[in-house]
Amino acid sequence: MRWIYRVCPVTGLKIDRQADLLIRAHGVAATVALLIGGIAAVLVLLTRWQAVHLLDAVWFYRVLTVHGMTMLIFFILFFEMAVLYFAGPVLLNCRVPAPRLGWAAFGLMVVGAVLAEWMMWTGRADVLLSSYVPLRAHPLYYLGIILFAVGALIVVLQFFASLVVAKRERTYEGSVPLITFGAATAAIIAVITLGHGAGIYIPTFLWSLGLMEVDPQIYRMVWWALGHSSQQINVAAMVSVWYLLGALTVGSVVLNEKISRTAFVLYVLFISMASAHHLLVDPGFGPAWKVVNTSYFMYMAVLASMLHGFTVPAGVEVGQRLRGFTQGLFGWIRRAPWGDPGFSSLVLSVVVFGFVGGITGVTIGTEQINIIAHNTLRVPGHFHATVVSGTAMAFMGLTYYLIPLIFRKKIAFWPLAKWQPYLFAGGMLIFSVFMSFAGGFAVPRRHWDITFSNAPFDLQFSPAVDLVMGVMAVGGLVAAVGGALYILITAWSVFFGEPIREGELSNGHVRSAAGAGESAAAIA
Amino acid sequence: MAMYGLPPGLVNPPRPLPEDDEESLPVSGRLGPAPGTLVLVLIFLAAFAVYYFANWKMLSFLWRIG
């Protein structure tokens, strides 16, 4: 079959037509998922805000299920599949190994997601994201997730195949770019994750049909090997995007290739064990198992994040200093392009992920401290700082570059696009911090009514909780406005945006994140 | 140069660096080539230590010894 490609005017890379189209399709699907999950988020928020308390109990848990599944699984994985096509065939300058299989995989993911959404919205899967057995959903819900996971697994295998094709056809020189290396670690973790997903969702599907039994404790253990590891795909993909955005926006350098690559490998080796911190109050596991996994092995994955948390901003700083921004300690950051939504997204993602998500995560993942945080709002306060302010923010920043590079459209509502990262990250910062505060007052997570009205017992929280929850809600609404702006800007740009004319994009020479001395061609 | 609707990194990409720029890394005294980042990292570690030990203190209110 003849290879159809175009040459990117910025990078000179040959961009496979099928990779181009697959990235577009996955990007659009991710944005649709973000819209659905975002609407659900606002409904959940306005119910948890006790002064509003919008939904009744049944719809609250239904919409919370939709929010968790659509955001954490569908939005994130659709976007990550787009990242894999970008980090594989595009960055490696090669063809998509099996385009038809790629479209079949995309079809499976869409069918699976639609099936699961249908089951959730029609009240046949009010089981929350974790769907703990013996909570039972309709068999089609589990089938939908299985189909989605199979599709995602095919895309991951396609990414590995593109590494082989690129190597065999010698489309790049030396080692693969650091961004592709990072994406490869995300793909390896995805295989581990999807393996566990098959290991638990297939038996649960059969259980929902009445064909077998599933032990609740075994379910929790295997499910979290899926549930937590899936978030580590996000982390590895997000860090890869950090390096990419740094290189594209300010020409950041990689301080030490070996350290950055070793940190990625640490994710692969140790991140699955961190899943154990979800089971710290489970009676079925001994303290030694819990402590070894969460207070020893998990810290090796934390070390990896701390290494990246240093090397990414340090790479930006050195890149800036080498270009003459040498004034004082922070002249390099003052003179950075803060009006570039790609750059502001990068910085906000690194800062909120590290300072809020990282610090709270390591602390409440400690076995002893977990006992005062488990199942309180401190937990979602932590993971909204990591997955939303970190991963989603980085992905949003990347979108502002993918739309011109892949869709070849200008960003619509440009002044709004420059403000969008600040609005979204600022709102999420307030939301996450005050959610954690509320958890500090022992306000439970996943709870419809913390006044416990009509309950057989009485429980009073500190009066401060009302204020804290109110501020949390305001922060959440600000973030929702930021998220809605992102959807408006990206959808308008893609479908109604002004095409980029010949010669408007310059021949870039962004320094490569692949290593010293290479040109932009290795990045994008 | 800025252009409406296009990120600056695409229309005015960062100036390319020479091949041997590792040797020209600007080193500011004892803080190494990235002194600003090092200060930010120290702030991060301080915040981490304060939050971590505050949590142990909170735990000690609940689990009193003796």
Walk me through the structure:
The complex is a heterodimer of chains A (524) and B (66). Chain A has helices at residues 17-48, 57-90, 99-121, 139-168, 178-208, 216-250, 257-270, 287-322, 331-334, 341-364, 367-370, 378-407, 414-440, 464-496, and strands at residues 5-7, 14-16. By secondary structure, chain A is an all-alpha fold. Chain A has one domain: Cytochrome c oxidase-like, subunit I domain (Cytochrome C Oxidase, Chain A), CATH 1.20.210. In chain A, helix 4 (139-168) packs antiparallel against helix 5. Chain A is globular, with a radius of gyration of 22 Å. Chain A starts with a strand and ends in a 28-residue tail after the last helix. In chain A, 58% of the residues are buried. Chain B has 2 helices and no strands. Chain B is mainly alpha-helical and 66 residues long. Chain B has a domain at 33-66. At the A-B interface, helix 6, helix 8, helix 10 and helix 12 of A face helix 1 and helix 2 of B.
Distance between the termini of chain B: 69 Å
Sheet bearing the most strands of chain A, described? 2 strands, antiparallel
Q: Give helix % range of chain A.
A: 55-70%
Note the overall shape of chain B. elongated
Low-confidence stretches of chain A: 508-524
Number of alpha- plus pi-helical segments of chain A: 14
Q: Would you list the SSEs of chain A in sequence order as H and E?
A: EEHHHHHHHHHHHHHH
The Rg value of chain A, from CA coordinates, equals: 22 Å
| CATH 4th-level superfamily of chain A | Cytochrome c oxidase-like, subunit I domain
Count of individual beta strands of chain A:
2
Structural classification of chain B: mainly alpha
* Unreliable residue runs of chain B: none
